[in-house]
Amino acid sequence: MTKTSPNEELDRPDCKRAKIFKDVALIRKRAPLRPATTYSDIYVTKTSSYKGQLVRAKKLLLQDGRSSISIRAMGAAIERAVSLAMSISAACSNQVRCQTETYTVDLVDDVIPLDTEKDFDVNCRQNSAIHIRVELTQPMPRATISRDTRKRMKSNKRSLTHH
Fold it and tell me: Which residue intervals are annotated with compositional bias (Basic residues) in the record (predicted)?
């Protein structure tokens, strides 16, 4: 299923897919378009800190009182996003419901020829993406957070504010 806007044909350039050799042109990948971001959105990439995202997700659900969070990923990071959702479920004693939506996104690359006589070109491609909505089925009691975890979170907060 591809998410499209009503004016998609007007929004994106005429795309073509051709083999591009490295000695002929440079390829610059444009940043993908993202939906409007909220505080409870977590974007997973191959280079993002898995442990940091897990701590942030637990904090949003257990401490900040959020009833749901959204995990989003594209391409090779989809596996990490699913793993993150499963880890959150285990951390919340399986008291969460995960709703998963997969879709395809259109990506645009700029083709910059090394020969200055030639014009710039655009290359379009598609990539898989996932959106996982993690919702608490019932409010978690605050007692599920251990004292050691609370102390670590407080000390982390203090260390962040002093730097």
Answer: 149-163
